[in-house]
Amino acid sequence: MFTGIITAVGTVRRVEEAAFGLRFHVESPYDPDGIAIGASICHEGACLTVIEKQRTGSGGVHVVDASRETLDLTTLGAWHEGTQVNLERSLTLGDELGGHLVTGHVDGVAQIVERIDDSGASHFWIEPPAEFERYIARKGSVALCGTSLTVNETRPGAFRITLIPHTLEVTTWGARKAGDRLNLEVDMMARYVDRLRAFD
Hints:
Helices cover 11% and strands 45% of the residues. The protein has 200 residues and is mainly β. The strands form two sheets. Strands 10-9-13-7-8-12-11 form a seven-stranded antiparallel sheet. Strands 1-2-5-4-3-6 form a six-stranded antiparallel barrel. The two termini are 29 Å apart.
């Protein structure tokens, strides 16, 4: 479980083909001594399991695998050497819940249709997959590329989010532009409400 508060930006250093999918070597500021083999780390919104680690300079490299299903449902299949990725370590008991509860289970891929920069902040209009639009509500929460964000406005087929300068600087969002694809996880509460209504 995660909060959608990004704690580091990592860089993909190597991508390897595997029978099950792809293997990624990700360099980050995280101290490898503090990462257990088998630990979960959220990468651009996708929860992946650490299978190897090693120290490099002031940080380290950890290795994760992505299955074919994960590659089909996310943007991970387009990662290459040099790709920057938002990272978040999993919650531990007593951690501050600064964003909202994020599972790291990506629902689908959304797309930026417009970016508007205004006095340091940036407004993004996002087009979600049609089947998930009903879960997105004004002033509700959504996770995009692992980042917990508030929905500021909705219109048919799209919704708007606003990022402050700090978020743009400490995540991969600063480089985002129209046409970019984003890993989307809708609010867990909305999914459960929808499922319960199906039995009414």
